[in-house]
Fold these 4 entries.
Entry 1:
Amino acid sequence: MSRADINLAALAQSLRQSRSFAAKADIACVVKALGIETGAIAVGDDCAAIPDGDGYLLFAIEGFINEFVASDPWFAGWCGVMVNVSDIAAMGGRPLATVNAIWSDGQDGALPILEGLRNASRAFGVPMVGGHSNLRMKNSQLALAILGRAKKLLTSFDATPGDHLVAAIDLRGRYREPYPNWDAATSAPPTRLRGDLDLLPEIAEAGLARAAKDISQGGIIGTATMLAECSGVGAVIDIDAIPMPADVAIERWLQTFPSFGYLLAVGAAELDEVLARFRARDIAAAAIGTITEDPRVRIECATQRETVWDLSDRPLIGCAPASATTRDEVRA
């Protein structure tokens, strides 16, 4: 089925009810239970950005679904590094070091996970400097934390009505079946991986964008919704404009977790330069929509337009914008 033949209302409903949206909605429960309030450190971004001298320390953590670790342990280890490095890049930063926590049933159970961690650490050039291990558990589990640094931030809080929503995705890959992971990294040259990730801090430092987010397990539309919520805006997304591989169903692609995939809010004056930087490295990039004052995230195709999520009715992750005063203090 071509994108022109899609029932957009059915697609919007499917996305709303998807596991990818449900997983992100769980964040709101955690934020509420912990009593987290946006203060000096904005909550809801890909990393905590901690002011430090003339820049920021970036701190993030990722944990992995047990079934994923059990079924594809090497790739889980690889992803442990990759997704953390991606979060650092999404904030306009460069990674410094990672630590890990691993549980497994003996050394044999731990070995493929550790090999994945080691291989990704070397490929991305990020040292593994410590962690925690327990090799006497019945099930394998994995979590990693990362530290990075940024000179200028890309945030989830600075998308502005009128900005172009840009998607940049490395399409030179394949699905890691049966999961929704698009793998364009494990067979790529390490120099290419590192150079591609450098694009994000270079864009931040050149002042070409202030807002960005890593396309995560929420997929393109879920990630756009989180970005919109944190910025107190909405978005209209043209699904015909989204970069995607041939012969992949649009519904699956919109819920895909790409190994290299980012959304950026970019001003009109900077759009051509941002797109050119990604395309110069053979990364598919396009303006796929517009940031709006209307706090709905909507998808459109041909003559159809449907609301996927109305943030004025219900937040997704429970991380509403900070006050203007607080945001100015954080960005100072």
Entry 2:
Amino acid sequence: MRVIIRKTYEEISLLAAELVKSRIEKKDNFVLGLATGSSPLGLYSALINMNQKNLLSFKNVKTFNLDEYYGLRGDHPQSYRYFMDVNLFNHIDIDKSRTMVPDGTTKNLEDFCLWYEQQIKNSGGIDLQVLGIGSDGHIGFNEPGSPLSSRTRLIALDAQTIEDNSRFFKDKNQVPRFAITMGVGTILEAKEIILIASGKKKAQIIAKAIEGPITGLISASALQIHKRCTYFLDEDAASELNRIDYYRFVEEAEGTIGKEIF
């Protein structure tokens, strides 16, 4: 695990975008795992800018999204398919048929979840997975108590998640109670992972996820065992880390031996 800390959200978003760009440029038919929510918006904005300036192409990229609200059609303004179209896909040169988001209206959940997992495998696995983190430490919609070996499935949303996400709906009662999500085990199979977090509200859970015990009660803590995971944090999100000086030292030391963070 590597922890990159910068003063502002804009700085970490640009750094994360440079990492994504470097990975896409190194491999044909790159498979990119994507997340929704506010955390990756700066990254997506930077990637759009790169694409529109002809610095990066997505023509040979395939994407898989982590999750989708169960019961929402893809054209619903609060669906994650709609979110991805509006905040990324509509603005880059990607083939929409190569952008995979779970189907929130599927009638056969078990078969669909098995199919989604198989599509990831058929594509060669996810090369790089982008993550945010919920206020209770969830990644995807893997709520507290999710097995660390879990696979893509339907999950009931925690009360805290419903409260957190209610800001996107007219009132809390409109927030779906279920979602389809990649499991923690599915996420951990990605070859590389980046997690972006910003703001004081994320500081306590970031400290627990990075420096606390590995537990199903904080699904992000499972990233501690991943061989290639990088956290991109602004100073506010990193403010409760006990080993913040060490993380800064490691990045500086890597620079002195010619090892770039990418």
Entry 3:
Amino acid sequence: MITIHNFQNGARGVRIAWLCEEMGLAYEPVVHTFPTSTEYRSKYPLGSVPFVEVPAHGVSMGESVAIMLHLAMAYGPTSLAPQEPAARSLMLEVAVMSEASLGGWLNLLLTDRYAAPPDQKGGWLTGMAQAQVRRLLDHLATRKGDSPYLSGREFTLADIAVATSLAMWEHALSGAIPESLVPWLGTVRSRPGYAKARNAFA
């Protein structure tokens, strides 16, 4: 059994549960409050989420995209992680971009909105972060082109990773989605696995 530690409605933990739903992997959701407890930090000293435990494999790890890639490799093969080189390279690029680039700027914006002192909100760096998020979303829209999914013709973990990042942009930050990505986002979020994953941490 895979244990997924997350905050209530935490988008990054939802992406792990969504992957498990798509792959038919059993998991147990565990919801934490912020700040996380001393007991939790004894498991994962950073105290952040998501964090997974897979006792059958002796595995415990953080970092949501790394977790997704690990589960896809450990329990695959799966179409969510294509093996054909061109599709695989695009899947990896977009999945990592969802956190290394897009997620990094989202973290800055989330911190500014929810943690910065009132007299320090909305500085120059915040404006730059908003511009960078929009730039990355425009890039993803251009790269997707007429393909149904971000990695081409097949739904992959790149779609899961970006769609959950966009939940933070839309709901926590009131950001707008490029019009050309709206149909794709509706399609991927209509999958039953997404609703089940969200409900697991509702």
Entry 4:
Amino acid sequence: MIRKLVQALLWCWLASNASAATLEGVTLPDTYTVDGQSLVLNGIGLRTLTIFNIKAYVAGLYLAQPSHDAQQILASPGHKVIVLQFLRAGSKERVERQYRAGEMVNCGEGGCDPSDEGDFERLVAAAPAVNVGDRSTYIFTPKGVRVYANDKLIGDFANRDLAYRLLAGFIGNHPPSQELRRQLLGLPAD
């Protein structure tokens, strides 16, 4: 009897964790396959802008194994994916400003490796304007990062430090918002 109860509880737990996640009308699948490896959705979060909480995008973080530890995730050599689905349109200039604001916060005055600058500038130049429903995908590999806009490759950078800095821009010490970081890491609300 107890064994059947445990099996039923385990089945319910697995079934509840096997579904996709939906936030603000955006549904992200529970897994993401990259380079033959299946990653699981670690967390889903909402990025808001300004004190008026303008909804910018929904983001999802996919990992090989779920983790709440940002430093462990950043240090791990395995594949990781960040998917952004935009809830608000933004001009190319606005997108560039967001990249540069993230660089300033995360790198400050000389905080990033100067060798990253060329790849970063190529990424900023390739980043398009976004419309509602557009998707950006960052695929972090042991060699670097591939960046897609609506499934079109806009940059493939064999630069592990740039990859680290981009991922840290979401889950590191200076994310766009602490709430988004908490959600991507799958941490409970305070």
